[in-house]
Amino acid sequence: MTRIRSIMLFLASAVLGLVVGPGTVLAGEAVEGTAKADKLEQCVEPTAVMRRNHFTFIKHQRDLTVRQGIRGSKHSLAGCVDCHARKDASGKAVPVDAPGQFCAGCHEYVAASLDCFSCHSAVPGEK
User: Which residues pair with 10 in a beta bridge?
Assistant: First the structure.
């Protein structure tokens, strides 16, 4: 009886994942609000490419910046923050790592650590 219950629980979880999972992903596909990114068709790369490879782009840019002194490419973390930071009702930038914001929301969804901003600014214009 325990084995059947385990199988049923697994199947229910799989079905729930298929129903809830895509809705959650689809809800995050369109960026809405007051960020510069809200007005763009896509990021510096197509959305699917950014979702899958943004960390690789950021690591590559980090290596270029630290080892070769090259700054300001299209994959810079500062560029990400500048484009994706939203503004609150008073017009002040909201940190991208604040609960419910761009970076925090996606990293929470995929259960990934978001430690970039322990050193880097999470709002535009700060160093």
Answer: none
